[in-house]
Amino acid sequence: MQPPKETYPATDVRIQSDIETDKAGLSDQESPAKPSAPPDGGATAWLHVVLMHIVFFNTWGVANGYGVFQEYYSRTLGETESSIAWVGSVQVFFLFAIGVAAGRVTDAGHFRVTFTIGVFLQLLGLFMTSLCTTYWQIFLAQAVCLGIGNGCTFCPALSILSQYFQKYRAFAVGLAAAGAAVGGLVYPVLIHWLIFHDDFGFPWTLRIMGFIMLATYLPCIFLFKPRLPPRKSGDWTDKSAFTDVPFIFFSLSMFFNFWGLYLAFFYLGTFARDKIGISEPIYLLMVLNGVGIIGRIAPTIVADKWVGMLNMLIPISFAASLLVYCWAAVSSAAGLYVFAVIYGLLAAALQALFPAVATTMTPDPSRTGTRVGMILGFVSFANLTGPAICGAILQKQGGDYMGAQMFGASSIFLGATMALAARIAKAGTDLKRKV
To answer: Which stretches does the entry tag as region Disordered (predicted)?
Structure first.
């Protein structure tokens, strides 16, 4: 004979069910669902590559084309080469430095506001520059206002693009970064021909640049869409990064690389005019920036398919250093064009691989904007001081470019060495490992 089954009141069952439900809810709160993996393709993902291409066009394209402004201001403002270089270097400084704040604000869910403010400041900077007649007016409008606007658009947009790709991230960023080469080709040619050949004058040249920027930015303002949920709380910096050895070495690598990288972009035109006797150095700048379309795409394809992004960056950095050392021996127009082609390819590859690798320097995708912003903020000081140091060396040596060339080449060499250290810290000495 079986013992009688125990029975429980219905109220006890409901209480037990409620307790289990509460526990499940608490568990969900303590362990929020992890974000889904990046789609690595699809219409929305590739649309964001196109949008980021436009952002590169209007930020790095303008920065890479500063050489034509360097040449024009050296003729019209009566300032030293070093003083004029500060306008371009401060502009690039803010493009990077604002990333510290803009990246964290983007992670917190305020991408669209940050991006739109950036576009407004870029346009304001260009239109105000068109009204400037003195060096300090140009400095405030073109270096500070335009530079801050660049930073408020570039870093947030880059962090959004990285949310859509993982396996093909280097290729996606490379395609987007080709916009910098296109912008570096279009804007300098536009400026040169409107100012020096078509008699539009400096004011209307800057306004036309502003109208082009406004038209191309309109789809970006409305179509950019963050994929991951916002991270409302947290520090403005990721403190764990300060003990992340690969992150530290990579940050140092990019600092030294960019300390010397922009020497050619700023001074190749004046070198061609003063030392080689080339009357139209704009064509050199066109070559330097134009080949960057290939330089930004081809290495990223190789990196994604076979060797890895960081593995690809290291030999390119060493090669760029060697080439700048060789620049000191160039004494003819033909040699200078060869230098412009090869250096344009290498510099473009470094510029494309830098943000691609930077987005991988965090184990937590929700902190990508914060960490990318930290790297950009650190590297910004290299962009701030590098071209100006080269200008000061040039002035100190009475127009001799040798000292500036040695500084630029040695800086890039140190950057390559630090990139190698980052690779060893992250993946050891196994050369077959894709990193």
So the answer is: 1-39
Q: Mean pLDDT score of the chain, rounded to an integer?
A: 89
- Name, of 65-79, 124-138, 198-212, 386-400, the range with top average pLDDT: 124-138
298 vs 170: CA distance, rounded Å: 10
Of the candidates 190, 182, 225, 208, the residue with the CA atom closest to the CA atom of residue 58: 182
Q: What amino acid is encoded at 210 in this protein?
A: G
Q: How far is CA 275 from the centre of its chain?
A: 31
CA distance 380 to 283: 28
* Local confidence band at 312 (pLDDT 50, 70, 90 cut-offs): very high
Q: What is the DSSP string of 190-255?
A: HHHHHHHTS--HHHHHHHHHHHHHHHHHHHHHHH----SPP--SS-SS-GGGGG-HHHHHHHHHHH
Cα–Cα distances (Å) from 196 to 68, 72, 202, in that order, read: 11, 9, 9
Q: How many CA atoms lie within 13 A of 59 on its CB side?
A: 32
Domain ranges of the chain: 41-227+239-426
Q: How many other CB atoms are there within 10 angstroms of residue 27's CB atom?
A: 9
**Alpha helices by DSSP H, 274-367:** 282-290, 292-302, 309-327, 333-358
Report pTM. Answer: 0.83
Q: How far apart are CA 202 and CA 119, in angstroms?
A: 22
Q: In terms of Cα–Cα distance, which of 296, 399, 398 is closest to 353? A: 296
CATH superfamily of 41-227+239-426: MFS general substrate transporter like domains (1.20.1250.20)
